[in-house]
Design a protein that fits this description.
Elements lengths: L3 E4 L2 E3 L5 E7 L8 E7 L6 E6 L5 E3 L7 E6 L4 E6 L8 E9 L3 E4 L3 E5 L2
Parallel strand pairs: 2-11
Antiparallel strand pairs: 1-3, 3-8, 4-5, 4-9, 5-6, 7-8, 9-10, 9-11
Length: 116
């Protein structure tokens, strides 16, 4: 059983930056596929970025060139660096980890609001 806790969300102006963190209660990121998802009001939850255990990354078209996913296995933490934020990035952001083909863990979410 692994718990994920997101942090780093908040209110930022358009064009600003935030870095989200996702901390795991156990050392699983070295073997897990991890990702960030987001859900805006009235919208479905959507993929933002993923980072596989093998080191490959995938980004949604809407965030390519602006967001960067990274991981620090020693700290059991996954990050999402968000630059050039836009109002349409406003959402609750969730961290996810999958491993051993049977495990799938979600964080509680952290609110990101981009507004002037």
């Amino acid at each position: 059983q692994v718990q994920l806790v997101e942090s780093g969300g908040g209110l930022v102006q358009p064009g600003g930056s935030l870095r989200l963190s996702c901390a795991a209660s156990r050392s699983i990121f070295g073997i897990a596929d991890v990702g960030w998802y987001r859900q805006a009001p009235g919208k479905q939850r959507e993929l933002v970025a993923t980072f596989s255990s093998g080191g490959s990354t995938v980004y949604a078209d809407s965030v390519k060139g602006r967001f960067t996913i990274s991981r620090d296995n020693a700290k059991n933490t996954v990050y999402l660096q968000m630059n050039s934020l836009k109002p349409e990035d406003t959402a609750v952001y969730y961290c996810n980890a999958k491993w051993a083909r049977l495990y799938n863990s979600w964080g509680q979410g952290t609110q990101v609001t981009v507004s002037s």
